[in-house]
Specification:
Shape: globular
CATH topology of the largest domain: TIM Barrel
EC number: 3.2.1.52
Strand order of the largest sheet: 18-19-24-25-26-27-28-29
Mean pLDDT: 96
Domain Glycoside hydrolase family 20 catalytic: 264-610
Low-confidence stretches: none
Helix content: 25-40%
Family: Belongs to the glycosyl hydrolase 20 family.
Active site: 438 (proton donor)
CATH superfamily of the largest domain: Glycosidases
InterPro entries: Beta_hexosaminidase_sua/sub, CBM2_carb-bd_dom_sf, GH, Glyco_hydro_20_cat, Hex-like_dom2, HEX_bac_N
Length: 641
């Protein structure tokens, strides 16, 4: 270790924290003309720094000491600064990565490693939040089926079993079953004209419903559509024991299950823009979504920090916009500061994942965020998308001042048309999500072109410019047979089509108001569904707390629009529920697993099971049983005890 960076809370009020930052030179050489580069997601009060100045873009901060004093061998440099915030209680709030440079302006940066120590919050010890679980039950299905009857006896699954040929609607579910049995049990079940495992069409069953009957000699999975067959397969896989009997067979308990979903849309969003998640990780995640009867994977593919989808019309989006680093067009953010970091999904990889998900009953909805959160695109295509005369002063939620598309540029509409045309052709889902969130006050106000554009169209408020862009995007999508989706802010400026599906994320109330206004809604209030939120109160908890804490039992408690009368027609606009994992701090498999599991299982039951069947003690017992599967699967979930 040659250089070390310490961060300590030295004072706090209701509206601000004051910190000491100490840089240690532990080498035998002096460091000249140095700058300190570090990541912190909070907005730092740059004017509060002592002995130097700060430039911050997003989470990326560059500190330059006053008069460039050399950092002598075995010495330290001390500075203080403030962050105007009302909460700073977790180690994740501190500096999570840093490096030094001795580069002068215009030269290539050569990062010098710095070890960052855990921030000293000056807090007393806080016990870890736990959710004690009841003893596992004999059968531990999640989500809770509408009707389950346990029968006496077992079905003995072995390599001698055969899957009977079935209708085309069952083909995907059968491929999934075969893949899971080969992976979990090293059993390869053939598909023949007759067999022991039967997938049968039953037109009397409602869409997505299923009937699963496990008898001593045969297993029957009945459904009226492909989704129902997948859900039946999910229950069958959960009945499969984790270990074989001494004779080498797997004893599946005999049951009779009739089941159907409470909500039609049951989704989970993963942010792959802030940190890139490899295809293998997403495939495993989709396996788990299917196992717990989700049916939608919302894929957040573009944002300020990265463009992750190949677009033939604009190769620059992935050549430039998919990468960030000290010497890239996109500066480093969050982690991996000292290296070139990123990645993207080729169209071939996306098609592969779409097919993989389809076998498991999962629809993939792509999100191309606009008109905000577009920094990666703007840096990739400056001649097309940047307005050189725009002097607007704004700072977005992630502290960027240059991430908004201009409604006054012809290039903006060329870009939207070409990108959405390729996205619509690539994804078979009937929906495309266009973001529409977090355009800050101040955007477009000091652009002569935008002001002229507003006058031409009779617009009085800047947010009407967002509606103009989104209406154009909607026209492009509608021409391609797609329905537009967006975050709750898309209704600002009053102009999006009532056919737009609204995702409520800031609060439950936003979803209610959208539904009352006639929009179909997906409920995704952060307070109950954002898995980037911390799961407890002790400083070592991973995550953020801007929307509060979200332990397992709070996820399970969520009942959307519960205050409404069950007969209120507003319920007809509630399409379903979705969870989300925003990945500003999620850059490893361990963090990915820790933030998602086992909360995903609680959300699964919220999405699927009838509210009157949900009971915490019963769920906790079944979850206890499911944890054994997660252990075997190598999932690094947050422990409940």
């Amino acid at each position: 270790m040659s250089f070390r960076l310490d961060m300590t809370v030295i004072a706090k009020t209701e509206t601000a924290f004051r910190f000491a930052l100490t840089l240690h030179n532990l080498t035998e050489q002096a460091l000249f003309d140095w700058q300190l580069h570090f990541a912190n997601s909070r907005k730092i009060n740059a004017a509060s720094f002592t002995h130097g100045s700060l430039q911050q873009d997003g989470s990326y901060c560059v500190f330059t000491p006053t008069n460039n004093p050399p950092l002598a061998p075995n010495s330290c440099f001390y500075t203080e600064f403030e962050i105007n915030t009302d909460g700073f209680a977790y180690h994740d709030d501190g500096i999570n990565d840093a490096f030094l440079s001795t580069t002068t302006t215009g030269e290539k940066i050569t990062p010098i490693p710095v070890k960052v120590t855990t921030v000293d919050l000056g807090l007393s010890h806080t016990e870890r939040y736990t959710t004690p679980l009841a003893a596992p039950k004999a059968i531990n299905l999640i989500p809770q089926p509408a009707q389950l009857i346990a029968l006496d006896g077992i079905f003995s699954l072995s390599a001698d079993c055969v899957i009977a040929q079935a209708a085309p609607e069952a083909a995907g579910a059968i491929r999934w079953l075969q893949a899971e049995l080969e992976q979990q049990c090293d059993i390869q079940l053939p598909l023949q004209r007759t067999g022991h495992i039967h997938y049968q069409l039953n037109s009397q069953l409602a869409a997505s419903s299923y009937h699963l009957l496990v008898e001593q000699q045969e297993i029957w999975l009945q459904a009226s559509d492909a989704a129902g067959f997948v859900h039946a397969t999910a229950s069958l896989l959960q009945l499969l024991p984790l270990t074989a009997e001494p004779q080498g067979h797997y004893a599946i308990p005999m049951v009779d299950i009739n089941d159907h979903p409470h909500h039609g849309y049951r989704g989970m969003m993963i942010d792959c823009a802030r940190h890139f998640h490899p295809l293998s990780r997403l495939k495993t995640f989709i396996d788990h979504l299917a196992r717990y009867k989700f049916n939608t994977f919302h894929w957040h593919l573009t944002d300020d920090e990265g463009w992750r989808i190949e677009i033939d019309a604009y190769p620059e989006l992935t050549e430039i916009g998919a990468w960030r680093g000290p010497n890239e067009a996109l500066q480093p953010q969050y982690s991996h500061l000292s290296e070139r970091y990123g990645g993207y999904y080729s169209k071939a990889e996306i098609k592969e994942l779409i097919a993989y998900a389809a076998d498991r009953g999962i629809t993939i909805i792509p999100e191309i965020d606009m008109p905000g959160h577009c920094r990666a695109a703007l840096k990739s295509l400056p001649r097309l998308l940047q307005d050189p005369d725009d002097q607007s002063q704004y700072s977005g939620a992630q502290h960027y001042t240059d991430n908004i598309l201009s409604p006054a540029l012809t290039g903006t509409y060329q870009f939207i048309t070409n990108v959405l045309t390729e996205v619509a052709a690539l994804f078979p889902a009937p929906y495309v999500h266009i973001g529409g969130d977090e355009v800050p006050d101040g955007a477009w106000t000091e652009s002569p072109a935008c002001q002229a554009f507003m006058a031409k169209h009779g617009y009085r408020e800047p947010m009407e410019l967002q509606s103009h862009i989104l209406r154009f995007a909607n026209e492009v999508l509608r021409a391609k047979g797609k329905r537009m989706m967006g975050w709750e802010e898309v209704i600002k400026g009053g102009g999006v089509d009532s056919q737009t599906v609204i995702y409520s994320w800031l609060s439950e109330q936003a979803g209610l108001q959208s539904a009352q206004a006639g929009f179909d809604v997906i409920m995704q209030p952060a307070q109950f569904t954002y898995f980037d939120l911390v799961q407890g109160y002790s400083p070592e908890e991973m995550g953020v707390d801007w929307a509060g804490k979200l332990p397992l039992d709070k996820v399970y408690s969520y009942r959307p629009l519960a205050e409404l009368d069950p007969q209120d027609p507003v319920h007809q606009h509630l399409l379903g529920i979705q969870g989300a994992l925003w990945c500003e701090r999620v850059d490893t498999q361990q963090r990915f697993d820790h933030m998602i599991y086992p909360r995903l299982l609680a959300l699964a039951e919220v999405c699927w099971s009838q509210p009157q069947l949900r009971q915490w003690d019963d769920f906790s017992a079944r979850l206890h049983g499911q944890l054994h599967y997660l252990d075997q699967a190598g999932v690094q979930y947050r422990r409940c005890d």
